[in-house]
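Hello forum,

I keep getting stuck at the same step: I have a sequence, I want structure tokens, and every attempt I make locally crashes halfway through. Rather than fight my setup again tonight, could one of you with a working pipeline run this one for me? It's a single chain of 161 residues.
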Amino acid sequence: MGFTLLELLITLTVLAALTIFGNAQLPDLIGNRALRSDLNSLARHLRYGRYSALQHGVPVTLCALSPKGRCENAWSAPLSLFIDHPPKGLRQGPEDRLLRLVPGASRGVRRQWRAFGSRRYLRWRTDGRTDGQNGRFTLNHGERSYELVITQAGRLRQSGP
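Reply #2:
Ran it on my machine without issues. Output:
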């Protein structure tokens, strides 16, 4: 039992239409998946930073580190989560142990931190509160964006679509 030429042409036309319409939405789908993945990863690391400050009774800082160990305002770069003894925002010596390395933002995803106080780092005190830095991380890819809001109490909540 075979196919007629007409049946074969109709099948190929339907397949071509599905491929064209499917591929048109594929980049948006991939971008949204990368955005959600980055959002979940960052939220997990933020919760871990607060937990570490509470658990170990030491200040913990999240920031992008320069080669000299200073915090920089480069939030889409890989971020370091480390124990932060004074001076603030400077990783120095073995007492400022690295707890985690947060991967940089995925391709096409932009990550930004806006807060009161310092914008170069986010720091949790020994009681889990931030250093007076209520603020928000904004992650966006094209038109779509999400926010992670951090209160002065160190709590995290998500807002967005």
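The mean pLDDT is 86. If your local run keeps crashing, start a new thread with the error log.
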